[in-house]
């Protein structure tokens, strides 16, 4: 709505319909700080009726308005965020000029309270993701996460080190395709989804490393498998160590037999000598 006296004084065309079609809030005051323009969106924002505000002093009609602290003849504030009660707005203030003459102050603003709340939630989610990412990356074991269809969602640095495959070459790809391409030797996801319980397998990576993998299901609210988290432990060194222990034990057995054989030979020689 626009003040009729303001229209009569400055000959501005009637554009109530246009003002009320604008989704942004619009408010203007004249040089006496009377509210001369208030569109429907702004009225709804302030919870008032347009006709009750027009031609009223701003400080009396809308004491919560941030325009109350702005000097009409010295508008220097850049567009920015402002708080009105529990709401947050993004406002742009500018001199209202008609025929080259300063006749008031205009403010165009938007209620961004919900957007700010959403941004705060997104920021919280982002921080949680960063925390989980750092937590996953701190694991000595490899971590490989897929959805129920076997699509690779993420993996940690330990998995990259164990497999010798970069993260960007795996994320977004399906495990079955990776198996068919020879990049992985086995897909544990399908078995976990089918059984709805942890599954443990031995796997030989393409680079020859032997690993012990355990795929565990994550369920949605309906009890269906939503994701599969696979823990990958490199047992190559353990297997090599076991082989070394076996070789060591075999050698020890041989040495013991040689020692016992030599001891028996000495006893036999001593017995024969005594007989003489």
How is this structure best described in words?
The structure is a single chain. The protein has 276 residues and is α+β, with helices and mostly antiparallel strands. The chain folds into two domains: 113 residues, Beta-Lactamase, CATH 3.30.450.20; 98 residues, PAS domain (Beta-Lactamase). Helix content is 41%, strand content 27%. The protein has ten helices and ten strands. The chain has a five-stranded antiparallel beta sheet with strand order 2-1-5-4-3. Strands 7-6-10-9-8 form a five-stranded antiparallel beta sheet. Strand 6 and strand 7 form a beta hairpin. The radius of gyration is 39 Å and the shape is rod-shaped.
Order of helices and strands: HHEEHHHEEEHEEHHHEEEH
Shape: rod-shaped
Major sheet attributes: 5 strands, antiparallel
| Name of the CATH first level of the largest domain | Alpha Beta
* Strand line-up across the major sheet: 2-1-5-4-3
**Oligomeric status:** single chain
How many domains would you count in the coordinates? Answer: 2
Low-confidence stretches: none
CATH superfamily of the largest domain: PAS domain
Return the average pLDDT rounded to an integer. Answer: 80
Question: Fraction of residues in helices?
Answer: 40-55%
Report the CATH architecture of the largest domain. Answer: 2-Layer Sandwich
The CATH topology label of the largest domain is: Beta-Lactamase
User: What structural category arises from helix and sheet content?
Assistant: alpha+beta
Task: Tell me the Rg in angstroms.
Answer: 39 Å
Terminal CA distance reads 137 Å
Number of helices: 10
Instruction: Provide the β-strand percentage band.
Output: 25-35%
Strand count: 10
